[in-house]
Amino acid sequence: MSEPERIAKRLARAGLCSRRDAERWIAAGRVRVDGMVLDTPAFTVTDRSRIEVDGKPLPDIDRPRLWLYHKPVEQMVTARDPQGRPTVFDALPKDMPRTVSVGRLDFMSEGLLLLTNDGGLARKLELPANGWTRRYRARVHGLVDEMRLAELARGITVEGVRYGPIKARLERQQRTNAWVEIALSEGKNREVRRVLAHLDLPVMRLIRVAFGPFQLGTLDRGEVEEVPAAALDSLLGLKPPPRREGWAKPRPRPTAKARPRARRP
Q1: Which pick of 25, 123, 157, 236 has the fewest CB atoms within 10 Å?
Q2: What's the average model confidence in pLDDT over 173-183?
């Protein structure tokens, strides 16, 4: 038995809709629990509750799943965009279940984006308390002062917003353009762009190459790849990590051999 939870959360975990959409469905009288039509989302259900949407039983909740997606530029990380711009979710394969993103990337940023079918897992993975490092490569315009980059390790305040320690180093300078490597753990809204702009280094291109233990690697733009179930279970602490093929078993430590005693004449 899982713990009791709000009906909107249960509908979202079943992959039918977002919590906000679930609240709209309830207001429209589309959701029934144990034969009663709900008129408020402030309703708690359990595994024993008989839930129906539009007269159909709620589908079984899938196990938590996680995908890596190489987000191209000019895609919004949102379910709907009021301006009609393309979204990440519009570009995903049609056979994928409903997913939510773990954190965000802005419209003109690209690189690694994590997607999951479990909203609770998304919130867990994006918490700064996890200590997961987000790594980026930024192409900037200007001459990089490496001393100022090093000072970011102490944190910085930009326009009243305090940003935590940031590890930054110059990868290479090419005349008036440069590539900078960035590593941070907070990931506040547009943090990399705002901090580098504060250093007079406007970002021309921003690529996220890693999120915690997950790497962008050779994943092509627009490509999506699921994290194997065993690896995800290991990450969540449900199972020990599987032994990979080719891993060598640890050799036993050699023990000192006893020297034969010399015979007395």
Answers
A1: 157
A2: 96
